[in-house]
Amino acid sequence: KADDELKRRQVEELIVTHLTRKGVDTKALEFEKPEQAGGNSIRQTVQVRQGVHREVAQKIVKAIKGAKLKTQAAIQGEEIRVSGKKRDDLQATMAMIKALDIDLPLQYENFRD
Q1: What are the domain boundaries of the chain?
Q2: What's the whole-model pTM score?
Q3: I need a surface site. Which of 4, 22, 24, 79 has the fewest CB within 10 A?
Q4: Cα dist. 93→19, 40, 58, 70, 84 in Å?
Q5: How far apart are CA 111 and CA 97, in angstroms?
């Protein structure tokens, strides 16, 4: 049992190392609980989270609206669209979102004047 746990942790570290090299943020990985497989082996499923879940998106939008910044936020599928007239307002919104301590890697796309 302890030997299996050691091997599982080593494989987990190996996965994290390889994905870090590929540029994937490790916050996107969701390790599920290990379970017994056939014989002396154990199995653990790892899911790569993609997009922002509805509850987290609502929390972010509520925080943006509560911050009284001159930006508008809207949930579009698995992403949040934030629009504003000034670049400074958008940058302030980005800084505020980073300070929220969300357990997801965030990406900012299509940032233009």
Answers
A1: 2-48, 54-98
A2: 0.64
A3: 22
A4: 29, 51, 15, 9, 10
A5: 15
